[in-house]
């Protein structure tokens, strides 16, 4: 902590993982002897850079860009770019650190990285977004490549931004390497089912977890926070599996409809018009809008899927969810529950699917996009979706197995951390001190 003062979110992510690793370190002293813990928390490289651009009023704006290349033991750095005013070194490092183990869990050959900027895309014109993305890539391009580091989207970075980033990368490099970014549009190297992958994957994971207890989405009441990429496709898949999704949100407030939300309206508002979620009640007057985010967790539900941002469920929200009888939590966002909230869930009867396992579907399909780009082939939606499903089931089974093997049956936090860690640690030991 003294080496990285003020990096609160990074400390939180490290604490959660290190607490889970105690039984592994006791069983395999070689990891301590080889300094794996000291090495794994130190990024291989952190790049921080100035991003100057001109807004629509002709005024010069300056943002800060980041790319943290955390760990390449099992493959090229891989992880999203986040554009949000809250982005700083701590946020990028917590996300990059989690990404190492998440990517390992997918079974794909990808290392861990993350990046982004404190740029706020909200209210910006398409021209401003394009100029910002171009300015960002003017520095990033020299650090990435299909065999080096392959960024993707995250909060504030979707298909539009990836398109502008890819265009600039191609122009600066003077060649066409589609494998340098994932989440691309379908006409220039994107993969079918990448847009849906994180949300669908989270629901597939929770479905598997419920199945083990004789439960299912069918007939259950679900609350999903956020209304971005992950949330929309979590809502869609949960509905396809027979659930009633009664609420979702954005950073201003949440909507509630006891009869179930209409996902097509949400897509229209958020993906096409890029407006606020309160617009929903204009089309669906029976729904209600409430200001503020945390109130969403007071809605009684069987399954809660936090899909917005870090630390959105605090200890109070966790207690309310449990006392309202929630049966399962599936983390679609990264680290959406505080450490205290996780502890409330783990000490109750609630089934808890931690982010790095439950939301790994997005990066898994990104790796499939890289595979398609390398072979210059495009797979069908059904083929990618069925591979995604298989990967999520495997992550679930491997996490359950690791939790049992190390004496924490049913604890998927411990299971996912251990299953992800051992593969990376073994690769680091094998490759020596680099
Ligand atoms: P989007 O930008 O598409 O959507 C984010 C959603 O969360 C929006 O509804 C946004 O509301 C809301 N939100 C963002 N910040 C806050 C905040 N500080 N407080 C309250 N609400 C907030 O991002 P994604 O859906 O891609 O990402 C959501 C989460 O999922 C993140 O934690 C991300 O790291 C994680 N994730 C994403 C993956 C992907 O493939 N996209 C893969 C794995 C994890 P508003 O519109 O008001 O900003």
Automatic annotation (TrEMBL):
<dbReference type="InterPro" id="IPR006096">
    <property type="entry name" value="Glu/Leu/Phe/Val/Trp_DH_C"/>
</dbReference>
<comment type="similarity">
    <text>Belongs to the Glu/Leu/Phe/Val dehydrogenases family.</text>
</comment>
<dbReference type="GO" id="GO:0006537">
    <property type="term" value="P:glutamate biosynthetic process"/>
</dbReference>
<dbReference type="InterPro" id="IPR036291">
    <property type="entry name" value="NAD(P)-bd_dom_sf"/>
</dbReference>
<feature type="active site" description="Proton donor">
    <location>
        <position position="114"/>
    </location>
</feature>
<feature type="binding site">
    <location>
        <position position="366"/>
    </location>
    <ligand>
        <name>substrate</name>
    </ligand>
</feature>
<feature type="binding site">
    <location>
        <position position="99"/>
    </location>
    <ligand>
        <name>substrate</name>
    </ligand>
</feature>
<dbReference type="Pfam" id="PF00208">
    <property type="entry name" value="ELFV_dehydrog"/>
</dbReference>
<dbReference type="InterPro" id="IPR033922">
    <property type="entry name" value="NAD_bind_Glu_DH"/>
</dbReference>
<feature type="site" description="Important for catalysis">
    <location>
        <position position="154"/>
    </location>
</feature>
<feature type="binding site">
    <location>
        <position position="153"/>
    </location>
    <ligand>
        <name>substrate</name>
    </ligand>
</feature>
<keyword id="KW-0560">Oxidoreductase</keyword>
<feature type="binding site">
    <location>
        <position position="78"/>
    </location>
    <ligand>
        <name>substrate</name>
    </ligand>
</feature>
<dbReference type="InterPro" id="IPR014362">
    <property type="entry name" value="Glu_DH"/>
</dbReference>
<feature type="domain" description="Glutamate/phenylalanine/leucine/valine/L-tryptophan dehydrogenase C-terminal">
    <location>
        <begin position="191"/>
        <end position="432"/>
    </location>
</feature>
<feature type="binding site">
    <location>
        <position position="102"/>
    </location>
    <ligand>
        <name>substrate</name>
    </ligand>
</feature>
<dbReference type="InterPro" id="IPR050724">
    <property type="entry name" value="Glu_Leu_Phe_Val_DH"/>
</dbReference>
<feature type="binding site">
    <location>
        <position position="229"/>
    </location>
    <ligand>
        <name>NAD(+)</name>
    </ligand>
</feature>
<protein>
    <recommendedName>
        <fullName>Glutamate dehydrogenase</fullName>
    </recommendedName>
</protein>
<dbReference type="Pfam" id="PF02812">
    <property type="entry name" value="ELFV_dehydrog_N"/>
</dbReference>
<dbReference type="GO" id="GO:0000166">
    <property type="term" value="F:nucleotide binding"/>
</dbReference>
<comment type="subunit">
    <text>Homohexamer.</text>
</comment>
<feature type="binding site">
    <location>
        <position position="198"/>
    </location>
    <ligand>
        <name>NAD(+)</name>
    </ligand>
</feature>
<keyword id="KW-0520">NAD</keyword>
<keyword id="KW-0547">Nucleotide-binding</keyword>
<dbReference type="InterPro" id="IPR006097">
    <property type="entry name" value="Glu/Leu/Phe/Val/Trp_DH_dimer"/>
</dbReference>
<dbReference type="InterPro" id="IPR046346">
    <property type="entry name" value="Aminoacid_DH-like_N_sf"/>
</dbReference>
<dbReference type="GO" id="GO:0004354">
    <property type="term" value="F:glutamate dehydrogenase (NADP+) activity"/>
</dbReference>
<dbReference type="GO" id="GO:0005829">
    <property type="term" value="C:cytosol"/>
</dbReference>
<dbReference type="InterPro" id="IPR006095">
    <property type="entry name" value="Glu/Leu/Phe/Val/Trp_DH"/>
</dbReference>
């Amino acid at each position: 902590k003294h080496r990285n003062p003020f990096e609160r979110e990074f400390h939180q992510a490290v604490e959660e993982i290190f607490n889970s690793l105690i039984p592994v370190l006791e069983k395999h002293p070689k990891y301590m002897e080889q300094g794996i813990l000291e090495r794994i928390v130190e990024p291989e490289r952190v790049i921080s850079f100035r991003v100057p651009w001109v807004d629509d009023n002709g005024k010069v704006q300056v943002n800060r860009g980041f790319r943290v290349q955390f760990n390449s033991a099992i493959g090229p750095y891989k992880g999203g770019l986040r554009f949000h005013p809250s982005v700083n070194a701590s946020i990028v490092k917590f996300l990059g650190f989690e990404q190492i183990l998440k990517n390992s869990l997918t079974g794909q050959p990808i290392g861990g990285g993350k990046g982004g900027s404190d740029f706020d895309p909200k209210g910006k014109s398409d021209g401003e977004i394009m100029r910002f993305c171009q300015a960002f890539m003017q520095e990033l391009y020299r650090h990435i490549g299909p065999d080096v580091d392959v960024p993707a989207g995250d909060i504030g970075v979707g298909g539009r931004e990836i398109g502008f980033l890819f265009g600039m990368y191609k122009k600066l490099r003077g060649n066409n390497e589609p494998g340098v970014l994932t989440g691309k549009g379908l006409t220039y190297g994107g993969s079918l089912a990448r847009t849906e992958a994180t949300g669908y994957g989270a629901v597939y994971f929770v479905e598997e977890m419920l199945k083990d207890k004789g439960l299912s989405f069918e007939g259950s009441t679900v609350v999903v926070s956020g209304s971005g990429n992950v949330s929309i496709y979590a809502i869609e898949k949960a509905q396809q599996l027979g659930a009633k999704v009664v609420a979702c949100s954005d950073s201003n407030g949440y909507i509630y409809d006891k009869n179930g939300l209409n996902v097509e309206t949400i897509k229209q508002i958020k993906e096409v018009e890029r407006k606020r979620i309160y617009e929903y009640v204009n089309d669906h007057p029976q729904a209600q809008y409430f200001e503020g985010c945390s109130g969403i967790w007071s809605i009684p539900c069987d399954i809660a899927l936090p899909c917005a941002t870090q630390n959105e469920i605090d200890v109070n929200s966790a207690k309310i969810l449990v006392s309202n009888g929630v049966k399962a939590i599936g983390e679609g966002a990264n680290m959406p529950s505080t450490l205290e909230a996780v502890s409330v869930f783990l000490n109750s009867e609630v089934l808890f699917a931690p982010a790095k396992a439950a939301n790994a579907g997005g990066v898994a399909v990104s790796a499939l996009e890289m595979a398609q780009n390398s072979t210059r082939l495009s797979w069908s939606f059904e083929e990618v979706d069925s591979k995604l499903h298989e990967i999520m089931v495997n992550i679930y089974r491997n996490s359950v197995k690791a939790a049992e093997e190390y004496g924490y049956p049913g604890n998927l936090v411990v299971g996912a951390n251990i299953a992800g860690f051992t593969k990376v640690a073994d690769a680091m030991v094998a490759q020596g001190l680099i």
